[in-house]
Amino acid sequence: YPSIAVSAHVEGAVVQEAVISKQGNIASVHAVSGPMMLREAALDAVKVARYRPYSVNGQLTEVAATIKVVFQLNR
Predict the structure, then answer these.
(1) How far is residue 53's CA from residue 44's CA, in Å, rounded to a whole number?
(2) pTM score, two decimals?
(3) Are 54 and 63 in contact (CB under 8 A)?
(4) 3-state DSSP call for residue 57?
């Protein structure tokens, strides 16, 4: 959670469009909506995560995915 967003009490969901590679890594990602203060942190989180590779008819394949990262302050 970015410290500036915590100080400003910014919460919300960042929606991202990503391409997951055959190896389960993020090949590309960009934010499509969400608070500007949270977008970079959401992108960073998604880039380091690993995903289960997708297969079609037994063949590994890249896949487009929509990923939502929700930021919520503890109250």
Answers:
(1) 20
(2) 0.86
(3) yes
(4) coil
